[in-house]
Give the backbone structure.
Amino acid sequence: MKDRVSKWLFETGAVRVCPEGKPFWYTSGRIGPFYVNTHFLFGSEQKANDLLKHIDGVMADKLACSADMEARVLANLAEDAIFAGVIEAMTEKISSEVDLSLVDAISGGERRDWFFSLAVAHKLGKPHLTLFKDMEAVLYLGSGLAPVADMPEPGQSKTVTSLKGLNFLHVADLITTASSYERAWVPAIRKLGGEMPWSLVVVDRLQGGGECLSALGVRSLALTEIKAELFESAVREGVLDASRLGLVLAYMSDPEGAMGRFVAENPSFLAEALAGDEKTAARARLCLAGGFYS
């Protein structure tokens, strides 16, 4: 399963490795050899960005947006083989790791979680808790599902006043430090009396998120992790050129050291960035101000 997910990540550009000798500039002012945009697994960057734009247009109506989004997600599930494969892998992971009889509903947070959480809820026949950044929550029962006691009618949503006694499995695209869980998703469910015993993400960046969830009492599951094996698998699958693997592996071992050596060995890189477009130049100035790689 990990090899399949790895291949799809690279095929859709959800993981993108820089051209040889041209690491990416990150918003922090640091540089690195890859980007991770897990929501591109919706099928492509364009399809993912189109859905985000659509969500922005319908999200204000909190009681109507879940059904609207579900319709788009399920239409794509029926036509896009990669997205369908990812959702199948997620449901298989849940079924093999979690007793489904203990899961009352699937939750997903604004906005990229919804790409995956609504589809997983539909496939598992579970209600969906749509969580918003302002910590409001809406319960939705997918269209075509069997009626569930104390839940909305199929295809309908209702505002949540209590989640007492309910257990949620949260589905998300990506986990880094788990700041959204700590700040919003777990507190939003608990203040209404519910619990989140489990979380499943497509990609764990291994930046402390799993440990944070553990401290919150949440079991953290992931289809794959950002580590050397992911990129080595991509080379084996023929979706990553082996010549670009070296810088990635060096970065995985020692991010600051690897990028520091790159800057020292390529003195024109920083000068070219400072003379480049405003976005790149601004990040290069952040690099200098922060004293990175000095």
Notes: The two ends are 41 Å apart (CA to CA). The CA atoms of residues 62 and 90 lie 26 Å apart.
